[in-house]
Structure formats: structure tokens, C-alpha cells
Amino acid sequence: MMYPGYNYFSFSPWITIISVVLQVVFWVVVFKIIFSLIRGFSGHHHDHEETCCREGDLDSNLEIIKSRYAKGEITKKGYEEMKKELS
Q1: Are 82 and 65 in contact (CB under 8 A)?
Q2: Are 62 and 83 within 8 A, CB to CB?
Q3: What contacts 61, CB < 8 A, 6 or more positions away?
Q4: d(CA 79, CA 59)
Q5: What are residue 74's phi and psi, to 5 degrees?
Q6: What is the pLDDT at residue 6?
Q7: Which among 57, 60, 59, 62 is positioned nearest to 74, based on CA atoms?
Q8: Which residues of the chain have pLDDT under 50?
Q9: What is the pLDDT of residue 23?
């Protein structure tokens, strides 16, 4: 028996709802991937705080402030404060 608005090839309303939900999920995933790629190529990373202060970086950071002090870019007081902060 045929219902008004339906023909032999019509789908139920649930298929339409599922289709819309899947399309939204698909586009959210696509935009998330694009956003992640753009953010990755631009140099912004979430783990910046974790990687900026590793033990191996301590020596190089001390060398940097030593060279800045030697060039006269920072005062002795500034040098001592930075050195204390890094230790």
C-alpha cells in the first residue's frame, strides 16, 4: 500500500536524520583535521611549556644569559635574577 508522499523508492525519515548527523560529523572531522594541519604548520603547539624547559635546555639557557650579560644587554642584577630563576 502506498502512503501519501512516498513512492516505491522513498526512504524512512530515520535515514534522513542519520544522514544529516553523519554529514555534520564528517564536516566536523574535516575542519578539525584542517585546523590541526594549519596549527601544526604555523608552529603553535600545545606541549610548548613541557618542551621549553627540559634539563638539556638549562645549560643552553644559562649560556644565552651569559652571552647577553657579556654583550651588555642585561645588567648584573638582571643576570643574577635570571640565573636564580633557571636554577
Answers
A1: yes
A2: yes
A3: 86
A4: 15
A5: -130, 155
A6: 59
A7: 62
A8: none
A9: 97
CA distance 10 to 24: 22
Residue 52 dihedral angles phi and psi, to the nearest 5°? -80, -20
User: For residue 55, what is its C-alpha cell?
Assistant: 634539563
Query: Taking a C-beta distance cutoff of 8 angstroms, is the pair 82, 74 a contact?
Result: yes
pLDDT at 28: 98
* Lookup: cell for 66: 651569559
Q: Which residues contact 66 (CB under 8 A, 6 or more apart)?
A: 79
The radius of gyration of the chain's CA atoms, rounded to the nearest angstrom, is 30
Question: Side chain identity at 79, as an amino acid letter?
Answer: Y
Number of H helices, E strands in the chain: 4, 0
> What sign does the dihedral 51-57-60-64 (CA atoms) show?
positive
Q: How many CB atoms lie within 10 A of CB 50?
A: 9
* Helix, strand, or coil (residue 45): coil
Q: What one-letter code names the amino acid at 21?
A: V
